[in-house]
């Protein structure tokens, strides 16, 4: 019975949480500590701390730890992990199906062309937020950035190679 409860709870968390793992924390806390009382608040705090330190998404890591803590078995951890990941997987499958079904539709193509500048703007916005007064004046970083941009945009080099070369250059310079 605990496995079904874990599945339903974490499926719901995965389905209704938008904004990534940190947005999940309050919903997980409400469902796990307050509503189902599978663990106490102190244990939940420890689980979040460990989830942040462990490689991987915090929402999936915390689901794994909570599933294990609530059930006492690896199966509980597996059920919670699969359940929190399943909604995203299903949504991506649906998007893939829609893309393959409508990729030749002119309205769909127009919508995708309209989304491209928005995505570029969101990425640029994230990059601008990372620029601080200290690193804005770092001309070496700007030179590496410009060289990487030129290499990928006009040199048509593989972005993975450009990232590796830029990382090595940054390591050697700094």
Fraction of residues in H or I helices: over 70%
Largest sheet: none
How much of the polypeptide forms β-strand, as a percent range? under 5%
What is the number of strand segments? 0
Q: Distance between the terminal alpha carbons, to the nearest Å?
A: 56 Å
Would you give an account of this structure?
With 174 residues, this protein is mainly α. It folds into two domains: 2-97, no CATH class; 132-174, no CATH class. 83% of the residues lie in helices and 0% in strands. The chain is built from nine helices and no strands. The longest helix has 29 residues, at 74-102. The N and C termini lie far apart (56 Å).
Question: How is the topology of this model organized?
Answer:
Blueprint: H1 2-16, H2 21-35, H3 41-53, H4 58-71, H5 74-102, H6 106-130, H7 133-136, H8 139-153, H9 159-173
Salient structural properties:
single chain; 174 residues; extended
Summarize the entry for a quick read.
It is built from nine helices and no strands. The chain has 174 residues and is mainly alpha-helical.
């Amino acid at each position: 019975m605990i496995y079904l409860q874990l599945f339903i709870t974490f499926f719901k968390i995965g389905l209704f949480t938008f904004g990534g793992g940190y947005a999940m924390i309050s919903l997980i806390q409400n469902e796990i500590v307050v509503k189902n009382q599978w663990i106490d608040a102190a244990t939940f705090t420890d689980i979040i701390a460990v989830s942040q330190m462990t490689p991987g998404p915090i929402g999936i890591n915390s689901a794994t730890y909570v599933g294990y803590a609530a059930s006492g078995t690896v199966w509980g951890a597996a059920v919670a992990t699969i359940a929190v990941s399943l909604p995203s997987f299903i949504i991506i499958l649906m998007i893939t199906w829609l893309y393959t079904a409508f990729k030749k539709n002119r309205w769909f193509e127009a919508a995708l062309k309209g989304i491209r500048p928005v995505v570029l703007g969101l990425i640029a916005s994230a990059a601008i937020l990372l620029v601080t007064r200290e690193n804005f004046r770092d001309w070496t970083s700007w030179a590496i950035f410009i060289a990487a941009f030129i290499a990928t945009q006009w040199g048509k080099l593989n972005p993975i190679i450009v990232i590796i070369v830029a990382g090595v250059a940054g390591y050697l310079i700094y």
